[in-house]
Amino acid sequence: MLTLAVDAMGGDAGLAVTIPGALAFLKQQPTARLIMVGDEGQLQSALAAAHAPMARIDIQHATQVVAMDEAPQLALKNKKDSSMRVAINQVKEGKAQAAVSAGNTGALMATARFVLKTIPGIERPAIAKFLPSAGDHMTLMLDLGANVDCTAEQLVQFAVIGGELVQALYPEKGRPRIGLLNVGTEDIKGTDTVKQTFKLLKGSEMNFVGNVEGNAVFGGEVDVVVADGFVGNIMLKTIEGAVKFMGGAIKQEFQSSLFTKAAALVALPALRGFKSKFDPRRFNGAIFLGLRGVVIKSHGGTDATGFMYALEEAYYEAKADSLTKIEQGVAAQLSVLTERRLEAEQAAMANNIE
Question: EC number(s) of the enzyme (predicted)?
Answer without folding.
Answer: 2.3.1.274
